[in-house]
Amino acid sequence: KERSLIMIKPNGVQRGLVGEVIKRFEQKGFKLVAMKFTQASEEHMKTHYKDLEKLKFYPGLCKYMSSNPVVPMVWEGLGVVKTGRVMLGETDPAKSLPGTIRGDFSVHIGRNLVHGSDSVESAKKEIALWFKDDEVVTYTAGNNEWIYE
Ligand code: GTP
Ligand code: MG
């Protein structure tokens, strides 16, 4: 069961796009197994984006990401890490095709609306950072047999 951390960034919340992002992952056939509405500390965001700490935009990114509420979620399903990234679009919205979330709703790289784990390995780390074990829910999705052969 592959899982990915998908997180609606502060501008996604402020712009009223929480439902839109959730809708796309639901409609695709992925299964929601965890979600919260929270404002993270700057330290928490520094840990989340630790791999980028040498880059010049890192301090501003962590400040921004902790400035307002975010909606981290865990989505589960076949190929969800890679497919989730395709659904998000490229890091730079200017390179994101229409039909992707960033391509449809954003224009600036620093305000690209949604985060998605970039590998199965980083997904595991990120899920552990944002959710306690018992906040990730195990259940049977009623539509499962209509989504998988
Ligand atoms: P995330 O899903 O948020 O992790 O984005 P990503 O995996 O597509 O890109 P990456 O992890 O490399 O960068 C994390 C975030 O930093 C991006 O989503 C951007 O918001 C921001 N970022 C990346 N590159 C730049 C840049 O050159 N300038 C600015 N201002 N922000 C950047
Ligand atoms: Mg990334």
From TrEMBL:
Keywords: ATP-binding, Kinase, Nucleotide-binding, Transferase. ATP binds at K9, F57, R85, T91, R102, N112. Coiled coil: none annotated. Residues 1-138 form the Nucleoside diphosphate kinase-like domain. The gene is NME2. GO terms for molecular function: ATP binding; nucleoside diphosphate kinase activity. It catalyses: a 2'-deoxyribonucleoside 5'-diphosphate + ATP = a 2'-deoxyribonucleoside 5'-triphosphate + ADP. Belongs to the NDK family. Its cofactor is Mg(2+). GO terms for biological process: CTP biosynthetic process; GTP biosynthetic process; UTP biosynthetic process. It is an enzyme of class 2 (transferase). The active site is at H115 (pros-phosphohistidine intermediate). This is Nucleoside diphosphate kinase.
